[in-house]
Structures are given as C-alpha cells and as structure tokens.
Amino acid sequence: MTGFASTSKRVSNPKHSPGLRLSIEDGRAVMILDRRRELNRLTIAAMGEIEAALLSLAAISDLRVLIISGVDGIFSVGADLHEIAALDPRSALDYSQRGQRILGAVRRAAPVSIAAIDGHCLGGGLDLALHCTLRYASPGSTFQHPGARRGIITGWGGTQLLPRLIGEDAALRFLLSGDRIEAAEALRLGMITGIAADPLDQALSVAAVIVG
User: In sequence order, which ranges of 25-122 are alpha helices (DSSP H)?
Assistant: First the structure.
C-alpha cells in the first residue's frame, strides 16, 4: 500500500493528531488512520480523533469525497476488547451509541466516502468500512467479524449495513460463523467494490473523477 508520506504530494494542508492524519484539497479529504503499533485499533481515544476529524470536515461545504485508509498493511482490527471488557451495562450502551454516531457521521461527511483497505479489516474496522459508499481492497486483505466467537456482537451498525450489501443469508453466515475471508471472497459476496494492488491509489483515482 502507498503510505501517507508518498501521497503527500497529491494532498495538501495536512492536519495531524497522534493517531490520525487528515488532508484536504480540491473537494477531497484523505483520512489516514495511523496507530500502527496498535494495529489501528479503534480505542476510545482513536474514535475521539475520528470524531474530531469528521467535525472539522462538516464545516467544508464543497467537500465531495472522503477517503479513509490505514497504514502498513492494517486498515483496522476493530475495537479494543480490553476497553469493552471493562464496560458495565450502562457504559456499554453509551459506548455503542457513541460508535454508531461517529461512524454514522462518515456517511454524512461527503456525498461519496471510500474505504481504501490494505490488510486486516476486522470487527469495528469492518463496520467503519461498511459505512463508506465504496470499498476497495488489496488482494491480501482479510475481513472478519470475530465477535460471535467471543460471545459478543458488533454494536456499530455492521449488523444492519452488511445484509443490505450481501443479503441476509450471507450476512448471517458471516456474522455468526466469525470466519475470516479474503478479498476475492469479499468481492464475490459484494462486501467490497473492487480489488486493487494499491487501494489508496484506486480511491484517489475515483475521487479525481468525482471531483472533476
């Protein structure tokens, strides 16, 4: 995957937080999740950074496309299970509702949102990708909702979005088995839009057409 540094000539005005890089140019925004030591785990802190970035994008009236990508062969491995284990029923509801609100904002941030997926796209990370309009993945990317194997289920919208993409039967098999699938199978099911050697380059090319 093309890393953020090599795409900086194509996007400008970078805004950084500790685990996220956001650049905006000509109606296009590129959000790079960059918590590589944590495998881009969607911790409470990481979700706060995503929320802040999306709030900043809400003020841009001419934004046409939002691209979300990861780094170093990791899109996101999902939520932090240690944080989830520490939740009581009330805080678990708040946690789920906040996640739904933040990921739902991805859908409203721009007319078109694109997930550029290279590597693991698991759990809440898959929910994040599902909230995007389009999803391009590298051939070696993998997809999984492992919650059923741990006695939990995603609370960030994946159970609603996935059946709309791949049908109820296929979604149930995927969610209840907890099986991990590769990009070719995800494409066959309709979970992703396409496969590209460099998903970020592909997303930028699609964005260029949309922005004109």
Answer: 44-57, 81-85, 89-109
